[in-house]
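Quick one: co-fold with adenosine monophosphate.
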Amino acid sequence: MSILVVGSVAFDTLKTPFGERQKILGGAATYFALSASFFTQVRVVGVVGEDFTAEHEAVLTARGIDTRGIEHARGNTFHWGGEYGENVNEAQTRFTELNVFENFVPKIPEAYADSRFLFLANIQPELQLDVRRKMPRVALVGGDTMNLWINIKRTELLRTLKEVDILLINDGEAKLLAQDNSLVRAARKVLTLGPRSLVIKHGEYGATIFFGDGSHPFRAPALPIAEVHDPTGAGDTFAGGFMGYIASQPKLTPSVLKSAMFYGGVMGSFTVERFGPERLLTLTREEIEERFRVFRNLTHLD
Ligand code: AMP
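Sure, here it is.
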């Protein structure tokens, strides 16, 4: 089963209490694709510039990711500067250089038309909607967004949300979107905007899924980690594990959704151990299963 992801393929310049890195491979679609590739076939739609080399692309293709939907445009790749203080859950944006992203119009290769799953990673909501409409036959649509779009493109975002099945956002974004400081009330409100399920990520404290049909929410843990070297991409990696696991299963049942929440947490916990997507490049399926057992033991009551 294939997942198509549309989103940023980027260079990130990062500063955390553990060090600094200049222009390393990043972007929401990159983290999502690498993470989901451990579970299923992944296809990427995005745009990069002339500074994006064959070696950068090989990081994705080495994991079997289909990159034919990554357009190579004139100019520089999207470049994001982020910094984290002692609070690992909160990134401060230092700069955003849109570069080739500015005039990006997503083009979906013919070969991607049969994708069963679609993930709208964090980009302008109009572009998300455009891709959603170009993929009418997908079985399930996941989506993400960020404070920036909730603040400056609310109308466009609300239009996009009507066509998203599962929205994955963090606590702050959920409260901002619902304009309500109670997380539970915010979740209920967001579930009236379109999505049938809502995954709220709590950074280092795990994630909760809320359901539109009124069934009980379910919370998955995060692994208590002593040294978070770089939280960048944790959310997208979570989404990749979550959607990737769902795509690998024959049917979407409540139990599959719960396991998907655990796999999302497992994948996120690996990413933050190293800078950028580094840890995902050496990861094995055995390590993922081993950590899945650790996650189970963390919350299992005999
Ligand atoms: P996360 O830490 O999972 O929320 O996502 C981090 C990734 O989002 C980084 O790799 C950035 O390149 C990417 N990013 C940051 N700002 C934006 C933006 N405005 N649009 C698209 N992607 C972004």
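If it helps, The mean pLDDT is 96.
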